[in-house]
Write a structure and sequence with these properties.
The protein is built from 20 helices and 24 strands. Among the domains are: about 120 residues, Diaminopimelate Epimerase, Chain A, domain 1; about 240 residues, Metal-dependent hydrolases (TIM Barrel, Alpha-Beta Barrel). Helix 3 packs across helix 8, helix 12 packs across helix 13 and helix 15 crosses helix 18. By secondary structure, it is α/β, with parallel strands linked by helices.
Length: about 575
C-alpha cells in the first residue's frame, strides 16, 4: 500500500513539473536597455550588451538575444545605440544641500579677478538688500596676483549688509566690516583654538579673512534657513545630480538636512539615494537609540559620523609634519577637538558602539594622527567590520601608505581637487612634497580601498570630470598636459570602480549597488561616448544621456544640453 501511494505521489510531482512552465505566467521585464556596451564593474562578467529590470532590481544581464524574451506588452525598451551603460555614479563626499543653496545663490567661483569679485557681490547685494549673504566659493588662486581678498574690497558695496563669503574649500571666508562688527571681532579678539583671524601686519586690524574655527563667530549669527528654503535647495541639488548621472550621495554634512531628505522620500521626490554622515558629537544619542552603522533603507541611511582633524591646503590650515614653504613655524591648524582631546575620546566611544568613523584629514600629519587613532580603536575595542574612512587622504607620507590597508582604512578622495590644487600646491608645500599628493596609484597598488567623490561645492558635481582628473591629472591651467605627478594616474576602469563599487563598499552597500548584476538595484548612467575607449582628454566633454534610479528614468538629456559647470 505504501509503495503504491509513493508511486502515485511521484507521478503527480512529475506531472506538475511538466505542466508548471505552461501554467505559470512568464516573468517579463518592466524596462530593458539593449544594443549597448554594458560595463558591469562585475569581475565575473565585465561586459554585456543589454540589461533587463523588474521593479527596482536588475532581472538579467546579457546579450540582446538573452534579454529579448523578457520583453512583454508593457515593457519599456531603450535602444542604447551602442552607448556605454554604467552603474549609477556614487558620490562619496558632498555637502549636498549646501550645494543646492550655492546653485540658487551668489556664484563667486568663476570670478576672474578682484574686479569681477566685487561686481558680483554688488549685484547680489542690490537684489537682496539687508539680507545676510553667504556662500560664494571664491578662489583667489585663479586671480592675477593670487592675493587674499580684503574687507576693504567689499565694504563700499555692502556697507549695511552683513556678508561672509567662503573660499571654495570651506576652511576660510571673507567677512565685511558689518559682519565683523556683529560678531564682535576686532584687533583685540584672540584667535580661537583651531582657528585664525588674519590681521593687517601694520595695524593689527582684522583683514576680514577668518580661518576654520574663527569662522564660527560669524556663522552663529547667520539666520537658519526655513524648511521651504531647504526644500528649494534640495530640489536644485537633486536636479543637478540627475544631470550628472549621480544616483547615490554620501552627504558628509547632513544634520537638519536629514529631515528634508525624509520629507522628499515620503513625497516620492528623492531622486538619489542618501547616505548621511552626522556630527561625531552626536554619538551618545546614537548609542541611546541603539543605532549602528548602515541604519535605514535603500533610499536613506545614517550610521556614519563625521569629524575634522585639520583644515585645508588652500587656506594653509592643513596640518603637516614639516612647515609650509617659506615659513619656519607654520605647520597648519589642528582642529580644536584634536587640541582638547575630544576627538580621540569621541572616536573610541563611537567605534565601540558600532558606528562608522569618517574623518577629514588633508595634511600628512593629520593623516598620521588619524591612522594612530584608528589603530587605537582596533587595539582597545571589540573586533568588527569597521570600514574607517579618511575623507580626502590628500597628502600621505610614504611610510603611512601601507597602514591604510593594514587597518582597513578607506581613502575617500576627490580627484578633481588634484587638477585644481596642482596649479598652486607647490607654493604651499614645495615640489617634493607634492609628489605625495593625491596618491591614487600608490593607494591602489598598496591594496587600499579608494572611493571617489567631488566634495561639491568645493568641486563641481560631475563624476566625469573626476574620472578625467584621476586618469589624466591635467591641471585646469593647462600647464601639465602630460599630467601633474603623472606616475599617480590610474586607468578609466579603476576610476569607474572608485565611483561605483568602491564607493558602495564605503557605505556597506556593495551587496546591492555599484555593479550591474542580477539582484542589484537598477541604478544606471548612460553616457554619450565610451569613456573606456576614447582618448582620455576627451572624457571632459562626455555627457550623461540617461540617469536611471531603481528602474525609473529620472533624467533624459535634451538634445544639445550639457552638464552645468557648478
Amino acid at each position: 500500500m505504501m509503495k503504491n501511494k509513493s508511486g502515485m505521489i511521484a507521478m503527480l510531482v512529475l506531472a506538475w513539473t511538466a505542466l508548471a512552465p505552461a501554467a505559470q505566467p512568464r516573468l517579463y521585464a518592466d524596462l530593458v536597455l539593449m544594443n549597448g556596451k554594458v560595463w558591469t564593474v562585475d569581475a565575473d562578467t565585465p561586459t554585456a550588451q543589454a540589461v533587463a529590470v523588474r521593479g527596482d532590481r536588475i532581472l538579467a544581464v546579457g546579450s540582446d538575444a538573452d534579454i529579448k524574451p523578457l520583453i512583454g506588452a508593457h515593457t519599456r525598451s531603450i535602444d542604447l545605440q551602442g552607448r556605454l551603460l554604467l552603474p549609477g555614479f556614487i558620490d562619496g563626499h558632498t555637502h549636498f544641500i549646501s550645494g543646492g543653496f550655492q546653485l540658487l545663490g551668489i556664484d563667486l567661483r568663476s570670478a576672474s579677478d578682484e574686479r569681477d569679485f566685487i561686481a558680483r557681490i554688488r549685484e547680489h547685494v542690490q537684489r537682496h538688500p539687508g539680507r545676510w549673504i553667504t556662500g560664494g566659493d571664491w578662489d583667489h588662486e585663479s586671480w592675477p596676483g593670487t592675493r587674499l581678498p580684503h574687507r576693504a574690497l567689499i565694504d563700499s558695496v555692502s556697507r549695511e549688509t552683513p556678508l561672509f563669503v567662503s573660499r571654495l574649500d570651506g576652511h576660510m571666508g571673507l567677512a565685511n566690516s558689518a559682519a565683523l562688527k556683529a560678531a564682535g571681532i576686532d584687533r583685540h579678539t584672540p584667535d580661537p583654538p583651531g582657528g585664525a583671524i588674519v590681521r593687517d601686519p601694520e595695524t593689527g586690524e582684522p583683514t576680514g579673512i577668518l580661518k576654520d574655527e574663527a569662522m564660527n563667530a560669524v556663522y552663529a549669527l547667520v539666520p537658519d534657513a526655513s524648511e521651504a528654503e531647504l526644500l528649494e535647495a534640495a530640489h536644485a541639488a537633486l536636479e543637478l545630480a540627475r544631470q550628472c548621472g549621480v544616483t547615490s550621495i554620501q552627504d558628509v554634512s547632513a544634520g537638519r538636512d536629514l529631515a528634508i531628505y525624509q520629507k522628499l522620500l515620503e513625497g516620492g521626490e528623492l531622486t538619489a539615494r542618501m547616505d548621511c554622515r552626522l556630527p561625531i558629537d552626536l554619538h551618545e544619542s546614537f548609542a541611546r537609540l541603539g543605532i549602528r552603522a548602515h541604519f535605514g533603507n535603500d533610499m536613506l541611511r545614517i550610521g556614519s559620523l563625521k569629524a575634522f582633524a585639520d583644515g585645508s591646503l588652500g587656506s594653509s590650515t592643513a596640518l603637516f609634519l614639516a612647515p609650509y614653504a617659506g615659513t619656519q613655524d607654520v605647520y597648519g591648524l589642528p582642529m580644536d577637538v584634536v587640541l582638547d582631546g575630544r576627538l580621540p575620546k569621541w572616536a573610541l566611544a563611537a567605534d565601540k558602539i558600532g558606528l562608522q568613523l569618517s574623518v577629514h584629514a588633508i595634511g600628512d600629519s593629520a593623516n598620521r594622527y588619524m591612522l594612530d587613532l584608528f589603530e587605537q580603536c582596533v587595539r582597545e575595542n571589540p573586533q568588527r567590520d569597521r570600514r574607517f574612512r579618511i575623507e580626502h587622504a590628500q597628502h600621505i607620507a610614504a611610510a603611512d601608505l601601507p597602514r591604510f590597508a593594514e587597518l582597513g582604512v578607506i581613502a575617500s578622495m576627490q580627484p578633481y581637487h588634484a587638477i585644481d590644487d596642482g596649479r598652486w600646491a607647490h607654493k604651499r608645500i614645495g615640489i617634493e612634497r607634492c609628489r605625495e599628493a593625491y596618491s591614487f596609484r600608490s593607494f591602489l597598488d598598496h591594496g587600499v580601498k579608494v572611493c571617489f567623490g567631488t566634495d561639491w561645492t568645493v568641486a563641481p558635481l560631475n563624476p566625469l570630470w573626476g574620472i578625467y582628473g584621476a586618469v589624466t591629472r591635467r591641471t585646469l591651467d593647462g600647464l601639465h598636459p602630460h599630467g601633474w605627478i603623472p606616475e599617480q594616474k590610474i586607468s578609466v576602469a579603476e576610476a569607474i570602480a572608485c565611483y561605483t563599487i568602491n564607493a558602495a563598499y564605503a557605505s556597506y552597500d556593495e551587496g546591492i549597488k555599484g555593479m550591474i548584476k542580477p539582484g542589484y538595484l537598477a541604478d544606471f548612467a548612460v553616457l554619450s561616448q565610451d569613456i573606456l575607449t576614447i582618448a582620455a582628454e576627451k572624457i571632459w566633454d562626455v555627457q550623461v544621456d540617461y540617469t536611471i534610479l531603481g528602474g525609473r528614468v529620472v533624467y533624459q538629456r535634451p538634445a544639445g544640453a550639457t552638464i552645468p559647470g557648478r
